[in-house]
Amino acid sequence: MPATLAQLLARPELDLTLLTDPGVGDPETLVPWAHSSELPDPTPFLSPGQVLLITKAPDEIDAYVARLAEHGVAALGFGTEVVRAGTPDALLEACTRHGLPLFEVPYRTPFIAIARFIADRVAADAYARSTWALRASRAISLAALRPDPLAAVLTELARQIERPVALIGADGALDRVSPSGAVSAASREALVAAADPLLRSRRRAAGSVVTEAGAFALQTLGAAGRLRGVLAIGSEGLDPAAQQVVTGVVALAGLALEQSRATDAARARLRTSVWRALIAGERALAESVAEPVLGPLPEAPVRVTVLAGTALTAAADWLESHSDGFFARDGQELVLVESDAGDPSAPSATATGPAAASRFDLRGGTSAPSALADLPTALAQAEVARQRATPKAPVPSFDDVAAAGMLALLQTPDARAVAQTALAPLTAADPALTDLLRTWLDSDGVYDIAARRLGIHRHTLRARVAEAERLLGRDLSGFAARADLYAALRATA
After folding, report:
1. Which residues on neighbouring strands pair with residue 216, listed in sequence order?
2. Is the pLDDT confidence value at 487 over 90?
C-alpha cells in the first residue's frame, strides 16, 4: 500500500514537522506522489491525494490554499531557509481554516528525498500486488483441477479478493454464492434481476448493480447466442491487481461451463430420440429410456406445445430448470409435453410454454388435452394453433381455435389470397357489393330482412344480387354457392 500522510511525517530521516493541529485533514490519506511547484495556481498539474511542496508563500495565500483544498491536495509542505526562515503565520492560518494539513520541511531535507520515499512505497506496493496476483492466480488455477472445478474456482476467487462471488445460470436462476452466507435474500434477488436483461440480450455484455451487500460487477459467460450464465463479483475497492485476477477467473469459469456442453448436447439428443419414439407409438421404449436420465414422462392427459423462433437453444437451456414436463428439440421446433391433470378450467395458466415464448420471443401453439397414445393428433393440433399466433397471443390454444368454429380457419394467408381472387370481379366493378352480399347472406338470403338492414328496397337488392351473379358467373340460389361465397367474404373480412 502507498505511504499514508502519517507515515510520511513520521519518517525520522526526513525530519518533517506538522504545523497544523492533528485534527486537520486525514492522517491516513494515501499519498501517491509529491510534487513541487511555485506557480500561483498549480492545481491543473496536480492529482487529488498528492502532496505539494513549495519554498515561498503565494501572493494571495487564502485563495491559493482554498484552491488546493478544493482540488483534493492531501497536504502542503513548506521548505524553509530557501526564500525565508520559518513558515509564514498567514499560511498556517489559511491551511487551518481550509482543513489542509501543513508541514515544514527543513533546509537539509531536499524535496527529492520526500518524492523518493513516496515513489519507493508506491513501487513496493505495486510489486507486492503483482506478487499477490500471481499467487492468487496460481491458487485459482489449482482449484480448477478439483472434481467440481467451477465451484472450486469461485470459492477460491472469493477467498482471494475477500469479496462475495455469485453465479447466475443461463436459466436466470441463482446457481451458487461464495461464501454461502455472504449475500442476503434481497441482494440475491437484485443480482438475478440485474442479470436478466444481460441473458435476454443473448450477447456478451457486462454491467453492474448495487445491492445491500455492496456493488457487484456483472459479466456474461459463454459465446454470443449461447450464454452460459452471468458472473457477479463484489467490486467495491478492487485494485488493478485484483481486477486482473478476476479477468482470469471469468475466462476459467466460461471454460468450465463450456466443458459441460458435450453433456448438454447428449441430453438434447436423448430428448429428441424419446420424443420421436413417442410420436412413433413406442411409448414403452420412450419411458424406459427417459426415466433414468430425464425422469418420468408427464401424466396423462397432456398438452403438446410447439414453439419456433431464433432462440430455441437458449429456451431449451431455460426449460431445463423451469419445466416440470418433458421437452425436446425436433428440427426447427421445440416441443413441450406437459401434464393437464390439474384444473381443466385453466389448462395453460401454469404451462411453461407461454413463459418461454415471452422470454425468448418465440411463437407457438398448444393442443387440446390428449392421451400419450394420441400425441400425433395433439402435435397436429398444436401446429394448427401455431398458425394463429400473434405478438399479443404468441402461444394460442387449440381449444380457442376449435371454439371459434370451422370458419375461423379461413383466417390464413392462403385462404385470404384465394378469396381475394374469387371476389376480384366484385371489388373491381363496385367495392360496395361485397358488404351488400355479406349483409344478405347474414340475413339467411331473405331479401326483405336484408333490404331493411341495408336501408334499400328489396327489388333494388334483388337487382344488385343479380348483378353480383353476373360478375361472378355463378347462380347464388343454391346453398353450396352461397356457402362458398360466404366463406370467401369471411376470409377477406
Report:
1. 209, 234
2. no
